[in-house]
Design brief:
alpha/beta, Rossmann fold, pyruvate-formate lyase- activating enzyme, six-stranded mixed sheet, six-stranded parallel sheet, 17 helices, binds iron/sulfur cluster, methyltransferase
């Protein structure tokens, strides 16, 4: 069969980090790897080229598979609609994060099958059935229109599949992670045992770590053509012994790459010597979720770290000469004094890069119930659920004042914390220009949000 795998274009009105962190569609690369031997298959990344109609006309796929993030629902449905308009015989499949979290959002006249989770087995079973045109029985993880979207109800999660990165060869020079461009991504471990209250990732991947064999990891690293790799494990720094073995293998194989990873404060402070060694083995930056200056909020979020731990982690990274790309969460109960305390806290931590998002109670999270009465978004306003919009009504200041405080914080980060000089020193002037273009787009979005609230 001919299969076209599609990543939808960016949702324009969403405020996301996409301008700074633009990763390969690795889920589609995994599907490609499973199906490539028996089918003719290609990937269309609509974030780079918006050529769906041309592909439908020239490639003439029998199946179009569309991946999704939480904010993509309407975009996926509109792609499905366009596909069926052009050729109603094309089979349309939806999958991705949103399908796992909110399956029924894809129950749509133009979508034939929805993958709640993807495994080698369910991919092969479905495509065998589609090819043979035999009656479609229920398959684990797949909800088909012909079966009224029923499935076997067997619980499952996405299987770890080694992606075929050649499938995105023509796009790869575009993928970047902040100043590292081109940059590949890979996963060396699934799940997370930290179980933070606000986090979707461990709920999607599992409540404890499932580490991939390091030989398999090393083989992938050797195969990756890019000089920079972002490990998108939930907490790459979790296991000291595994990290030491990782460093051994990097040294034995003379691998010289730039690595970026997510790492928890708890892991950084529990094995500082290993963190230093990782720095010598190529670890350039760690994305750390410090979240807040408030001890109470850290406890409420069920973070396993304290404010003091945050300072310790920051010091360890600086001593190891590893950049810290910090992320924070803005609590809806903050007032202007809290924002001021927050700015002082960030100034003391002095991360090289600072990102933030307002606390977002996604419908699948327990905290959704807690904030249900203060929600500013409806569940079906899918595009609005981007991490940067205020979704909970602030309790102590007005919404427009809250947006004003966010704007003040953005200016504080850019003008006072010298992010610009870090960018130039680390990545050069052209990267600063590229990133600044993204920031410039974000600033008016917040100004617009603030003014909209004032008018209403
Ligand atoms: S450490 Fe990170 S990935 Fe793990 S549960 Fe907490 S926020 Fe989620």
């Amino acid at each position: 069969m001919k299969i076209l795998l599609v990543r939808p274009p960016r949702v324009k009105q969403a405020v996301t980090l996409g301008e700074f962190m633009f990763c390969e569609p690795i889920g589609l690369e995994m599907v490609y790897a499973v199906l490539m031997d028996r089918h003719e298959i290609k990937i269309l990344d609509m974030m780079i080229e918006n050529t769906l109609e041309k592909e439908l006309e020239t490639f003439k796929p029998h199946v179009v598979g569309i991946t999704s993030l939480c904010i993509d629902v309407n975009m996926v449905k509109s792609i499905a609609c366009k596909v069926k308009e052009i050729n109603s015989g094309i089979i349309v499949i939806a999958g991705g994060t949103q399908a796992f979290l909110n399956l029924s959002s894809f129950y749509d006249i133009n979508i034939d099958h929805v993958f709640k989770y993807t495994t080698r087995d369910n991919l092969n079973l479905l495509f065998d059935a589609l090819e043979s045109k035999k009656e479609l029985h229920l398959i684990d993880g797949i909800h088909s229109k012909v079966n009224q979207y029923r499935s076997t109800n067997v619980f499952g999660r996405n299987e770890y599949i080694i992606p075929n990165r050649l499938s995105t060869q023509k796009y790869r020079q575009h993928y970047s992670y902040l100043g590292y461009k081109p940059c590949a991504i890979m996963q060396t471990s699934l799940g997370c045992s930290s179980n933070c209250d606000f986090c979707l990732r461990w709920r999607i991947e599992g409540a404890k770590e499932n580490d991939i064999d390091l030989e398999c990891v090393m083989n992938q690293i050797k195969d990756i053509q890019e000089d920079s790799i972002m490990f998108y494990d939930n907490n790459f720094l979790n296991n000291r012994d595994r990290l030491e073995k990782f460093c051994d293998l990097i040294e034995q194989n003379n691998i010289v790459k730039n690595f970026i990873c997510y790492g928890s404060v708890k892991s950084i402070i529990s094995h500082p010597e290993t963190i230093k060694r990782l720095g010598k083995c190529g670890l350039k930056a760690v994305l750390v979720g410090y979240e807040t200056f408030s001890e109470k909020e850290l406890a409420d979020y069920k973070k396993k770290s304290t404010v003091e731990d945050n300072y310790k982690a920051s010091k360890i990274l600086k001593e190891a000469k590893i950049d810290c790309w910090a992320s924070f969460m803005l609590h809806p109960d903050w007032d202007t004094k809290d924002f001021k305390n927050f700015r002082s806290f960030v100034k003391k931590l002095k991360p090289e890069i600072t990102t933030f998002c307002p606390l977002t109670p996604f419908p699948n999270l327990p905290m959704y119930q807690k904030y249900k009465d203060r929600l500013l978004l409806r569940i079906e306003d899918y595009e609005m659920w981007s991490f940067s919009k205020v979704s909970i009504k602030p309790s102590k200041i007005s919404l427009s004042r809250y947006y004003f405080e966010i704007l003040k914080f953005i200016l504080f980060v850019n003008l006072r914390l010298n992010s610009a000089s870090y960018m130039i020193n680390r990545f050069g002037f052209m990267t600063l220009i590229r990133i600044t273009k993204g920031s410039i787009k974000i600033l008016p979005l917040y100004i617009k949000l603030m003014l909209e609230v004032r008018k209403s």
